[in-house]
Amino acid sequence: MSSISGSQVIAIEEHYLDAEVDEKLNGRVGGSAETRARLADLGELRLKEMDAAGIDIQVLSHCPPGAQAFDGDTAAAQAQGVNDRLYEVVRSKPDRFAAFASLPTRDPKGAADELERCVDKLGFKGAMLHGLTDGLFVDDKRFWPIFERAEALDVPIYVHPNRPHPAVIEAYYGDYAEKFPTILSSAWGFTVETATAGLRLVLSGIFDKHKNLKIILGHLGESLPFSLWRINHSLSKYMEGGDRAMSFRDIFCEHFYITTSGNFSNPALLCCVMEMGVDRILFSIDWPYVENAPGTEWMEGVPLGAEDREKILNGNAKRLLRM
Asked: Which of 18, 107, 139, 286 is catalytic?
């Protein structure tokens, strides 16, 4: 294994695909056949590609939609099965893998209980939520029990993209989606949806009630750090009524962490460091949607000092996820 200049490398947005979820969705998730094969691999291929790129640990998370695919009275039990199978993978290679829970958000109380079970019983590091649930963003108050439990457990919730709302797809992207399908996902749609989710969480008041809640956004913050000054300036006159009378910028920089997943840009990284501070940035690849090597090769030459690079590669993850 060839780590980056001798540093331990922890990558925290690295996906997989559970066979039961795949069966329920009739093989419609995960992308191309090659990507789906990588998602399904939790052994030799994954480890070989990690070793080749110098990645020591992956924090595994289910690709969209994960346990959010389940509904009805059996959702919590089905989510438990997904997480139990992931636990066995982590237990087989605890030096190489850790995990985020997948939660049945259609049953918020069940999702909160499953998060607690995964953290307390299985040693998971938090949970990942994917996009909308039945057309609702995660700031909707019916989902607040999940965030309340995350705060009590002192673990983060990773807010990850999924496909935009069908009405948004039709209105915003319909003219181009057939010719440029990734406009719905990594090229733009994912960014818009997830940045909107992050912004809505701040505006919802959830951080007034849950003052120690931690949220992670991927892809260098889904563009929010770049727009932080403008958002803050525009909203400042409306942000004075909260319990702490904090600005949008204050709340975002206190409660949010971001990762490098799928966004290996020096200018973008430096913007995030300047806006949020290096202690809020964690390394990730977004494997297998993005290859490992470009991410680790990029980190070799980022224009940061050794101490700051070490924080991004492993120190911030160790602190936030208690690894």
From this structure: 286
